[in-house]
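Dear colleagues,

As part of the handover before I leave the project, I'm documenting each prediction I ran so the next person doesn't have to rerun anything. This entry is a single chain, and its sequence is reproduced below.
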Amino acid sequence: MSTLQTTRRPDDPAGGAPPGGTVTVAAGAASPPAGPEPALKRLAAVVERLQRQVRDAQADADGRGVIELAKGVLVERLRCSPAEAAAQLDALAGETGLKPLELAAEIINQAAQDRVAEVTRDFLDRAAGAAAHAAAEHGAGDEPGAPAVAARLRSAESGALAAADTQAAAESLLEHALRPLGAAAVAVWSAGPDGSLTLAGSAGFTTEEATRWHYVPPGVAVPARTALLERHPVWFASLSEAGLPSIGHRGVPGGRVTIPTGTGGRVIGVLEICWPGATPAPSPRLERQLEALAELCARTLETRPAAGLAAAALPDTAYRDLSELIDLADGLHDPAFVLRPHIDATGRLTDFRIHHVNDRFADLAGRPRGLVGGALLLEAYPLWGGENGLFDKIERVYATGEPFRAAQMVLTAMVDQVPLAATADVSVSRQGDSVLLIWRVEDEAARLANLLQHAQRLGRIGGFEEHLATGEITWNSQLFALYGLPVGAPPVPLLQLPAHAHPDDEPAIGRFLRTLLHRRQRASAAFRLQRPDGVTRHLRVVAEPVLDAAGHLLSVRGAYQDISSQHWTEVALAATRDQLAHTEQQAAERNRLTLQLQRAIMPPSRGPIDAAGLQVAVRYRPAEHEHLVGGDWYDAVELPSGRVLLCVGDVAGHGIDAATGMVVLRNALRGLATTGAGPGQLLGWLNLVANHLTDYVTATALCALYDPADRTLRWARAGHPPPVLVRQGRAATLPTVDGTMLGALDEGFYEEGTLELQSDDVLLMYTDGLVERRDGTMEDAVARLLATAQQPSTSLELRLDHLLTHSNADTDDDTCLIGVHLP
């Protein structure tokens, strides 16, 4: 029998035998052998514990440099020995509840006050409220507090500074600073002067992937180039959605953050951080951390580039000797500046110093080379920093290395406080630590010639000059295009012009040539050119003779202009005028017929009508403009039954169609009224007429029947304004009854209203031309009508005339008005 006893320490949850542990084996009866599964679990636990111990040991080793640096700060500040500084560090760690590494990072931050210190809180404030602050931040689910951030960044800084090259620095950044943020990989790119990118260091990628992406040529769109060109951090939530390839885009297709790295205003590389999923939400705290890491990369790229990195891919390789750049500038045939960056005390680029001015320099303001050389660029040319952004272009070229070219750029200089502008072609390129600025001011003669060429092209004008003695003919390119000939073909002499023109235009061309060549006077002619391609163009030629001092004819110069579009426009305009005149004549004839029809049926006024004891008066006012002749109508007639039919209506539209529709409805209603039906039934039948016996006529109508036996008035309406009753000096509209517009629906319903007239009552029926206004509502218009109608009047005729006179309608429509008075 054998017994196995294992003594474990309390901090050994895996159950393995740690160094220094006790293992006791007692002999005895053999126990059953353990199964394979428990043995594998114990082995896995041992491996995990050992890996954790290795990671802790590596972290302690990496953080030892930070702790030793913090001890040095305490020795210098407290004037104590290293042993006392170590004791003081342990005591402060115990008081604040921080780990020694975190406390060491805070002490260094307070002493350094650098970019790393900016992303952490002040040491004293953090020491006073460590516990509360840590609880609040961890409770909110945010990233670790300021001490943890400071410890990570200082550990990463220590590892980067101790690294042999950028590759080792990238590994240190990923292990100490980026993995705690959830990042899976990191790449450090070096920017070349030609815009290329070279992989200086990477971590988290396979060796094959790093080899495949060791170099990105200029102009290839990748995330790192985006940050290089924009010169600020760029966040890609998903690399696959962005559609940009990059290192590890198949293995790590998640989010990316690219941060430009550089010093003194010049970008020398890009830090690219990769996440397996989406990037964390950007926050000022996280952005400052990543910018601090980018600054570490910049220092590493400047001092320890990657092993084996090609020299051509690193900055500062071209024109290292400034004298070579000066010799290059002096060899140019255009004005040139050699600019050097001007860095302020904080290391920020503020301006460029004009280090050298070549011999071809011609100042826009007329200053000599001695006054410009050695000055700051914005002091010598202050307007370059604003209106055209040339200074921004120079700054961008210096930062990214990407050259800038621009044609016809406006450059402005101040001359006695007056801006003087010139147009120039500009070239800006970075050469090592310097910038070469070259410009070429556009020649005035070339500028005017170019302007003339564009003017001739837009005006379809071609110029020529013909020397009569030598026969030499000069055409510009536009004239070849007008003739339909290729550039370089033999030009057509003036004497051969009739052979290229339409035969009918030969007399006009003959007069042109006689005036020009024999009378030696300026001449012009219009003709039809028959081109070789079969196209006929309408041209106008203008020419003048060139004479010597004795009056002899030397040459002829002039121009052709293509007036084809003008000719066809004139032809089309003439045809349009003829058609318009014919249309106007037809319209006038239709209006004349419409007026004759309307006035024959509806005279402007009729005398009083006495019917069944009623006094009836009517007024009709046609539209002022003949083209607005409408379809307003009225009727007042005594029926065979002794009742009186009173009606008004308004057909929609104007012209002959409205007038003929009015005639149909008016006559139909008069005939239907003889049946003895009520006003509602009459309007229902009239609606059938409008729907089936007319050509799409719609109208409103008001129909009333007066029975003298009982003085009763029955009335109905089809979308028309209700009648107005004036009784005892007060005017009011009758209660509204329902009724649809005629012709709107196949079947309409028309409600009837009943009114018993009293002595001296006045009933008014009208169309909307009496009251309607464009700038008001119908309610306001009716209210004004009531106020006018209730004014006293000695007779019905005068009352109707008063209503027409004081009508404020502005639609210029026809107006019908019926007045009924019961004595």
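Residues 36-78 form the longest helix (43 residues). DSSP finds 24 helices and 29 strands in the chain.

All the best with the project,
I.
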